[in-house]
Amino acid sequence: MACFVVMLPLLLALVKAQVPHWGPCTEPATQPAFNLKQFMGRWFEIAKLPARFEKGRCIESNFTLKVDGTAQVVSSEILKGELRKIGGTVIAEEPKNPAKLGIIFSHVLPYATYWILSTDYVNSALVYSCIDVLRLFHVDFAWILSRTRSLPASAITQAREVFTSNNIDVSHMVLSSQQGCDKDMDINPKAIKPKATTMFL
Fold it and tell me: Which residues pair with 19 in a beta bridge?
């Protein structure tokens, strides 16, 4: 209990400016027979539920499988003309359901949920995360990812329908900016020192 009291201000800071929902986190269906190895590689953020820890554009994540079965992730964004990068670790939290991943960018906070709801590994992926506060209310995070910097509008619509069918409110979902990114990636990157309120980009 004492540990939770210490962590609560950090959690509240993380969910600040998000849209809370009453009750505990939902339990969406995840990708059947998920294969972590096939999921590795570069993913671009196409759309998301707004998150205060994502403020830039050209957001992407690159996953690399490690020999111990975990994965390394390096996420990046361009913010105020500066390329910012941060590294983290991904683990399979439930061996019987490998699509329920955990991700961490800070040694202060515990692993955050990073659930793969759907992916074909070669085109797109739908990711869900949630912060539950005392089972009184929760805050949803959702991302539509792509192997390229764009997806057809029909694919984005279908992705939103998957979230909605799993009782995840994506009415506030916004498109991410992936324009002019490749030429801007030549900027010298600045490593971000993980803070207590940092989950991932």
Answer: none
